[in-house]
Each structure stands twice: as structure tokens, then as C-alpha cells.
Amino acid sequence: VFEASNEIASSLIKGNSIKEAFDKSQATFDKWISKLQKSDAPPEATHILTTLYWDKAVQTYHGNENAYLK
Description:
By secondary structure, the protein is mainly α. It has three helices and no strands.
């Protein structure tokens, strides 16, 4: 579940822009949300989903979206 937030750092290290890293992180949130919405998800999925929805909704970036690490 921490994969979505780790995607930011990983993407930036790989040379992606801020916007690309953000978009990859948002896609990872979507992947986990979809997995945990399935009928065979564990019972605690509802609690995890609440946090994932919140984290995805409030994730943001500031500044130049085309910036990247050198």
C-alpha cells in the first residue's frame, strides 16, 4: 500500500518529471483501490480503502510540473 507514495521518489530518481511521477503515483493508488474493492479482498480492506482514498485525494505537488532531478 505504501507503493503509491514510494512511486514518487522512484520515478524522480529514474529521471521522470514531477508531473510524470505524480501521475504514476496516482495510477498506483488506482491499482490498489481496484484490488481492494474486489469481493475477495480481506475484511480489513474497507479500512485500508478509506486511507487510500484520502491519500490519493490530498496528494499534490507545488511548483514547476516539468521539473526533474539532475
